[in-house]
Amino acid sequence: MRVRELARRVLRVRLWQHVVNEEMKRGRYRIPIHAAFGHEALAVALDEAMEEGDQLALTHRNMAYQFARARAFEPVHREYLLQPAGAGGGRLGSMNLTQPGRGIVYTSSILGNNLPVACGLALAHKLRGTDAVVFALTGDGAMEEGAFYETLVFARSHRLPLVVVVENNDHSLASRIAERRSPIDLGKLAGALDIPCRELAGNELGSYLDAFVQARKQAAGGPVAMEAHVRTFCNHAGATPGWAADPRSLSLGAGLTIEPTSEDPAYGASLALGGEAAAFTESLLKLASGLSDAVEEAACPSR
User: Fold this and answer.
1) CA angle (89, 94, 100) in 5-degree steps
2) Closest among 232, 267, 297 to 21, alpha carbons compared
């Protein structure tokens, strides 16, 4: 039952991202937005694993996590419209959007910038004697930054309650790892610092949730590193497709699933729902037009 509910939430987050993507195609938003198609299972599992008082520090590609933590479409999309009713009061947009009431206390568009901030947050919890854990999301690009190594060393030296999650999608902007640097074995790197490291792949919701729950428990005694192998199906930023000859193509009209493989969380979620999947997906797609109408009304209230 637990996995089925998580699967439903994955599909909702996928739907909400699709709606935003369709509106980006129409030029609805005035800010840069980074969709996270392919990251939904991680976002939902982490949301479920977080406990009261825990905090989350995100990167520029935070849409799936914003929706997963908000558990609603309106607060996030109204923030993208820069409206007072948005999650950030219409002042933060996408790349710096926080939701303190839902534990998202810091988000940054600067590569690796959120890591030392998360380290400081974890230090504060340790000094105050709380049971809270800080989760910091980062990517394979930020692993090349000095802040990544400094954060691991400082967190391990002071045994801070910090979980560093590397979303490895093999891309930094348009360059793949093999095109820009040598491989980095996070397990060996973490091992050299005596930091436990967990690896995630396959978008299996039960396994992801168990891994995050265990990592949270371990973090009570010091930092934990996690590397999640993820496929990002969308462009770096903006709508997909973003131009006439764009080789990538995402359309809500084609359904929620992008690719029928384990790399697509929506496909995995549909499998987890079994015979319920078709009816639940159909019910979500029926909601899509209503959400689009809500975006239209929110963006153009005089119409």
Assistant:
1) 55
2) 232
Angle at 53 between CA 226 and CA 229, to 5 degrees: 20
If the chain, 303 residues long, is cut into consecutive pieces of 10 residues, what is the mean pLDDT of each piece? Answer: 91 96 93 96 98 97 97 94 94 94 94 95 97 96 91 97 94 76 90 96 96 98 97 92 90 94 96 93 85 65 55
The dotted CATH code for 2-299 is 3.40.50.970
Q: Contacts for 173-182 with beta carbons within 8 Å, 24 or more apart?
A: 173/141, 173/236, 174/236, 177/140, 180/144, 181/144
Give the rounded distance of the alpha carbon of 96 from its chain centre.
Answer: 14
Indicate the DSSP class of residue 13: H
pLDDT tens figures, 94-115: 999 999 999 999 999 898 999 9
3-state helix, strand, coil in the chain (%, to 5): 50, 10, 40
Residue 286, pLDDT score: 86
Asked if 118 and 185 count as a contact pair (C-beta separation under 8 A), the reply is: no
CA distance 89 to 185: 41
Query: What is the rounded distance in angstroms from the CA atom of residue 272 to the CA atom of residue 3?
Result: 7
CA distance linking residue 109 with residue 118, whole number of Å: 14
